[in-house]
């Protein structure tokens, strides 16, 4: 499973990283920095929880 993160939508709310700290990492400005990365094995449900928490719907999870 791969993460697609629209940085143009991301507002730095950081809820993704709060809800799924093992999946999402933020850059030095607080924006989600995981675009194109693969979800770690066994963390798919956590990734989904974090994606759903995003107020901007900036995160999509796609099968790889
Ligand atoms: S919750 Fe959404 S808007 Fe906030 S940092 Fe994460 S991806 Fe960006």
Strand order of the largest sheet: 1-2
CATH topology: Alpha-Beta Plaits
In this entry the ligands are: iron/sulfur cluster
The helix fraction, in percent, is: 10-25%
Number of helices: 2
Q: For the report, how would you describe the main beta sheet? A: 2 strands, antiparallel
Query: What's the N-to-C terminus distance?
Result: 5 Å
**Count of individual domains:** 1
Structural class: alpha+beta
Second-tier CATH architecture: 2-Layer Sandwich
CATH classification, class level: Alpha Beta
Strand content: 5-15%
Describe the 3D structure.
The protein has 64 residues and is an alpha+beta fold. The chain has one domain (2-62): Alpha-Beta Plaits (2-Layer Sandwich), CATH 3.30.70. It has helices at residues 15-19, 44-53; strands at residues 2-5, 59-62. The protein has a two-stranded antiparallel ribbon. The longest helix has 10 residues, at 44-53. It is globular. The N and C termini lie close together (5 Å). The chain binds iron/sulfur cluster (SF4). The site of iron/sulfur cluster has 14 residues, from α1.
Topology at a glance:
Blueprint: E1 2-5, H1 15-19, H2 44-53, E2 59-62
Antiparallel strand pairs: 1-2
Bound molecules: iron/sulfur cluster.
Iron/sulfur cluster is lined by residues 5, 10-16, 31-32, 54, 56, 58-59.
Question: Could you name the key traits of this structure?
Answer:
Alpha-Beta Plaits, 12% strand, binds iron/sulfur cluster, 2 strands, alpha+beta, globular, 64 residues
Quickly describe the structure.
The chain is an alpha+beta fold. It contains 2 helices and 2 strands; from the N terminus they run βααβ.
